[in-house]
């Protein structure tokens, strides 16, 4: 991806080349530049209507009940929870401990096993690097999957540079891992297995209970990134035999900038802390605990626990409605990921013969994404879709629809209608679609160079 | 927003069907009804489309869900939660009004259909 100055400098140096080639190179550079600016970022005008929010996997709006719980701690109860000598500290500390209980209750843990962090990314970093480094004397191997979140994959990459062995397990076509492969990958010097509960791009739910039991039987620690799962499906760390679990605040209608890490006490798992200092949070994560944020996280967890069944029923209903509407009206739509082992609120659809970015641009009234927010900057198709074996062209035409607690039937109907309308329109303009309609098999075409 | 009370009386008066009549005392029934109406009235004031529709839907569904509850202690607890929810909704509506922004695309459609 060359920028303009670099490309003009290169072109300048090609003076000796005949002119048609130069013109072609110049237009190619312009095309690349144009491609990057396809979806221009801009702020909405004052009188412009806001798009519908259908990107609940990227982040979620705060539940009014959560904001209501947080505000007193932003306005009046502003004490540092670690101050031991006055009422400001005591009331802040008691709020923090109450939040800890609320988070623990949601996942079936003991409050003493919860460590507050700045988010799931920090929790993931802490778990992977912390466990690896603590046990590095005897254990040098870590297992993870190819569809993990970027922070997990990047932490593993850093550990590789430190001298650890990492196995990136492949996934089957439906996005699930093969338990047999996992069992074979476990070595005597494996310290940690890290597999996310629900994938943020395709919504697939891994068999966490079976993996947990397998790891416990082989005496290997098990970490799961449950950012997308907590509060949406029933989670129990004891049933699942999980040793470490990452929780994110802003995925469960809580505030951004806060998360938690569940660290099992029995049997004990030790971590080398990433952040050193005054020894807060059992020495695992020093730093002042942000009371308003953790109060928000606690409130979000409590609301999620109460609303779990109601939300799940509703989200499944709306998701089926969306998928039914779209798939019954237009052909050649593929849903990525296992149809049964999934969280219904995360739907990743590939529309054949339609370019994903153009469809997103056309659907400017709906806030959607193609792939995860942290990988959307590059033009490459998502690595998750590549890992599940999606064809290159289908991977480029995939859109992720997120449905959450606040989604309405009108929003789902509007999204489905606009999606159908624009897919049909874009396909009319596509030469590939024309060829398919004539009965030509695209895979049999021999594309030639001019 | 999960408030519950014998919806019986409420539904009875709203739908005029006998199948929802219960054994609650007259004052209890009216009290529940007025609380329900108040919750709906406040919920309609949310400037945000998503919060407004959620609050209205959740209040209705919560009252519907708990309509057959008979135990007075449980009823009292549910009514207390309803009153707390009412206070939360009132505060959050004020905050929403202070920081109001543009409407969403479906609201224009709603207005068109009216």
What does it look like?
In chain A, helix 6 links the parallel strand 3 (141-145) and strand 4 (165-169). In chain A, the strands form three sheets. A seven-stranded mixed sheet of chain A has the order 2-8-7-6-5-3-4, sandwiched between helices. In chain A, strands 9-10-12 form a three-stranded antiparallel sheet. Chain A has helices spanning 4-12, 19-36, 64-75, 87-107, 120-134, 150-162, 179-185, 208-217, 237-240, 291-329, 356-362, 383-387, 392-396, 409-428, 431-437; strands at 52-53, 114-117, 141-145, 165-169, 190-194, 221-225, 244-248, 259-263, 333-335, 346-351, 366-367, 398-402. The radius of gyration of chain A is 24 Å and the shape is globular. Chain A is 43% helix and 12% strand. Chain B has helices at 7-15, 26-43, 49-65, 72-98, 105-113. Chain B is built from five helices and no strands. In chain B, helix 2 runs antiparallel to helix 3 (49-65) and helix 2 (26-43) runs parallel beside helix 4 (72-98). Chain B is an all-alpha fold and 114 residues long. Chain B starts with 6 loop residues before the first helix and ends with a helix. At the A-B interface, strand 1, helix 3, helix 10 and helix 14 of A face helix 3, helix 4 and helix 5 of B.
Short structural summary:
The complex is a heterodimer of chains A (450) and B (114). With 450 residues, chain A is an alpha/beta fold. Chain A has 15 helices and 12 strands.
How do the strands and helices of this protein lay out in sequence?
The complex is a heterodimer of chains A (450) and B (114).
Chain A: H1 4-12, H2 19-36, E1 52-53, H3 64-75, H4 87-107, E2 114-117, H5 120-134, E3 141-145, H6 150-162, E4 165-169, H7 179-185, E5 190-194, H8 208-217, E6 221-225, H9 237-240, E7 244-248, E8 259-263, H10 291-329, E9 333-335, E10 346-351, H11 356-362, E11 366-367, H12 383-387, H13 392-396, E12 398-402, H14 409-428, H15 431-437
Parallel strand pairs in A: 1-11, 3-4, 3-5, 5-6, 6-7
Antiparallel strand pairs in A: 2-8, 7-8, 9-10, 10-12
Helix pairs in contact in A: 1-2, 3-10, 4-10, 5-6, 10-14
Chain B: H1 7-15, H2 26-43, H3 49-65, H4 72-98, H5 105-113
